[in-house]
Amino acid sequence: MADDDSTSGPAAPATGPALPAFWTVRTPPRWLPRSLLYAALAVAGLIAAFWILGKLQGLLTVLLVSLFLAFAIEPAVNWLAARGVRRGAGTGAVFGVLLLVIVAFVWTLGALLISQVTMLVANAPGYVQDVVDWINKTFDQDLSGDDLTKYASEWSSTIEGYLVGLAGNVWGIGTVAIGAIFQLLGVLLFTFYFAADGPRFRTWVCSLLPPKQQKHVLRAWDIAVEKTGGYIYSRALLALCSAIAHYVALRVLDVPSAFALALWVGVVSQFIPTVGTYLAGALPVLVALVHDPISALWILLFIVGYQQFENYVLQPRITATTLDMHPAVAFGAVIAGAALLGPTGALLAIPVTATMQGFAGAYVRRYEVAEDAETPAPPKKKRKSKQPEPTDQAEE
Predict the structure, then answer these.
(1) First to last CA, the chain
(2) Would you say 197 and 87 are in contact if contact means Cβ atoms under 8 Å apart?
């Protein structure tokens, strides 16, 4: 009788060939989904942070400029506070002095510009005739004043077209001007608060840190105030010396507007990095060139000579106790600051670099470099001693 399949037990599963180990499906570890979620949140947070920083770039720039301006005037405010003046009143007094200096500087240069433009307009016919005579003599031409008047009319029409197009965009220009004014007011406001409430603000910042870190923050703060203030005051002293020297030279050479030109040279050459020296020297040379080319040549020689005297004699003595920075380091800092923040970064580059240099000097340990010992002479090769020739007695 045949075996009934229904009475038999469950059929054994069919077994095939065994799969390789790397084909085996494994369940992911429990920590993997959580790690992926954390990584996605971190990336999203970074993107949001960069977006927020991009939107707040203007405010952050204003805060940075205000902080370093507060560092620059804080030594003067501290000096007044040590003599019984309240910090708010002392900060207001320092602001008033700076405002008077800026207004006097702009007023003096404005008067210089107006006088030079008036003189240029009054002497324009003579200049035109001189140019015509020079062209005819140099290039063997036969021009007249009427020809230049015609060319000037054509150029004025072209310039007028550009000005009309520029006037059509007056709304955009006005918006930019209003934005610049608001930024300037914001810088002044934050600078006043940072300087007037400097100790309180410093205490608030340190209260967020553990005691061990507070000491380092206070030390870094003091270094920043010392270096930034030292930079501003040393530059102001150098500007004063430069203005006095150039005023004397301009008066001796009988160049008009000597005071305004000397003030321009002193301020621009010291407070505009890298290119300030060339911008400062160009204006007095041009003004002197209009009146007397020989005087312009003497002014140029004096500017070059004084620049060498300032670089090698005056500046090392004044900046020895305030800000000592190699010119190559200062030049590289200005380029880096301009690449990061534009003109604002170029102006802040040297104080920031000086602060970092002072902070590194306070915390980085330096060692004296041992003098190089004289190079020892190469060892002499030992000569092999010659064996004495055997004598006849030794042979015997």
Answers:
(1) 124
(2) yes
Residue 234 · residue 322 · CB < 8 Å:
yes
What is the C-alpha separation between 15 and 38, in angstroms, rounded?
A: 43
d(CA 4, CA 176): 99
Helix spans in 84-210 (H): 87-122, 124-139, 145-168, 170-196, 198-207
One-character DSSP codes across 39-108: HHHHHHHHHHHHHHHHHTHHHHHHHHHHHHHHHHHHHHHHHHHTTT--HHHHHHHHHHHHHHHHHHHHHH
Enumerate residues 6+ apart whose C-beta is below 8 A from 75: 225, 226, 229, 233
Which of 334, 259, 238 shows the shortest CA–CA distance to 105? 259
Q: Tens of pLDDT along 32-72?
A: 788 888 899 999 999 998 898 888 888 888 888 888 888 88
Is pLDDT larger for residue 61 or for residue 382? Answer: 61
Q: Which of 221, 201, 190 is nearest to 62 (CA)?
A: 190
The residue among 357, 343, 90, 95 whose CA lies nearest residue 230 is: 357
- The predicted model scores a pTM of 0.64
Burial of 213 (0-12, 13-18, 19+ CB in 10 A): exposed
